[in-house]
TrEMBL record:
InterPro entries registered for this protein in UniProt: DHBP_synth_RibB-like_a/b_dom (IPR017945), Sua5-like_dom (IPR006070), Sua5/YwlC_C (IPR038385), Sua5_C (IPR005145), T(6)A37_SUA5 (IPR010923), TC-AMP_synthase_SUA5 (IPR050156)
Protein name per the record: Threonylcarbamoyl-AMP synthase
UniProt GO cellular component terms: cytoplasm
Job of this protein: Required for the formation of a threonylcarbamoyl group on adenosine at position 37 (t(6)A37) in tRNAs that read codons beginning with adenine.
Length: 302
């Protein structure tokens, strides 16, 4: 069952309780409705993908209440600080170098060394950020492949029955997703056009919408063998269920837990002593399909 509650202190209290319990909650922002979950909790982030029915993992935008909260897990150059001062809170997302010690789940960034961050201005999202005290990962609150929701009714139509709560604050003021700009030192690259015009040309590559666009620098540097029941002599085995391995994605064979640990496993395997990587079979059900999509890309010849 999906409840729809009008924005109020009680609704934010209920949303915060669900977030603390690891559930995703649909929240209004000034751009579009977002499906928010605790960005430090890998299983909570995996439940976002499960609810959206996404067949692959796409890095997500992390929402924070202020610049100090962003600086916990992202590095802001002076250029980034200037953009923040000018446009935050508001519909600007900055892709910044990730601080690996900042506590974000690696599923949020899909294992990338960068993180997309924004400070939303909407009072409901601000209230939830302050109530939870957590950075909140939130993609648009629609099922994979459908259009972004600008009203609670759109979210209900797309995700009804798949999420516990929608906080309704009426239509979104902007109605289109945030501008995304990558900030690397003093270099700016526009990845997605949006409400904020920075006078930049759109990058040919754009934002990482298709998983195939994910930069190869985070793919493992070693050959990967799939559907391995046991490791060969030179292989680091990523296990699942009864296939133990050097790093088990989920001893209980739970695909949500496995998704939350996938990118940690790939990084571990890549830095291990063994020159080769093998991965146990993962069932194709639910999030297993997204895990297998990622693994097939890791195993594809480069
Ligand atoms: O207005 C918005 O930005 C809304 C609200 C809810 O905040 N959110 C939103 O999220 O549009 P989503 O997941 O639908 O779009 C996020 C975009 C994707 O194209 C993704 O590839 C890109 O941001 N992205 C996220 N992290 C990135 C990274 N580290 N590098 C490059 N692109 C990234
Ligand atoms: Mg979207």
């Amino acid at each position: 069952m999906t409840r729809v509650l009008p924005f109020s202190d009680e609704a934010i209290g209920e949303a915060a309780r669900l977030i603390a319990a690891g559930q995703p909650v649909a929240m209004p922002t000034e751009t579009v409705y977002g499906l928010a979950a605790d960005a430090t909790d890998g299983e909570a982030v995996a439940r976002i993908y499960a609810a959206k029915g996404r067949p692959s993992f796409n890095p997500l935008i992390v929402h924070v209440p202020d610049v100090a909260a962003a600086a916990e897990f992202a590095s802001l150059s002076s250029e980034a600080e200037q953009l923040a001062a000018r446009h935050w809170p508001g519909p600007l997302t900055m892709v910044l170098p990730l601080r690996p010690t900042g506590g974000l789940s690696s599923l949020v960034t899909a294992g990338l060394p960068t993180v997309a961050v924004r400070i939303p201005s909407h009072p409901a999202m601000q209230a939830l950020l302050r109530a939870t005290g957590k950075p909140l990962a939130a993609p648009s609150a629609n099922a994979s492949g459908s259009i972004s929701p600008t009203r609670a009714a759109h979210v209900l139509k797309s995700l009804g029955g798949r999420i516990p709560l929608i906080v309704d604050a009426g239509p979104c003021a902007r109605g289109i997703e945030s501008t995304i700009v990558a900030v690397d030192g003093d270099r700016l690259r526009l990845l997605r056009p949006g409400p904020i015009d920075l006078g930049l040309e759109l990058e040919a590559v754009g934002s990482i919408e298709a998983p195939g666009q994910l930069a190869s620098h985070y793919a493992p540097s070693k050959p990967v063998r799939l559907n391995a029941e046991r490791p060969g002599d030179d292989e680091y085995l990523i296990g699942f269920g009864d296939v133990g391995g050097d790093f088990n994605l989920s001893a209980d064979a739970d695909v949500v837990e496995a998704a939350s640990r996938l990118f940690d496993a790939l990084h571990e395997a890549d830095s291990a002593a063994q020159p080769l990587i093998a991965v146990a079979p993962i069932p194709e059900e639910g999030l297993g399909a997204a895990i297998n999509d990622r693994l097939r890309k890791a195993a594809a010849p480069r």
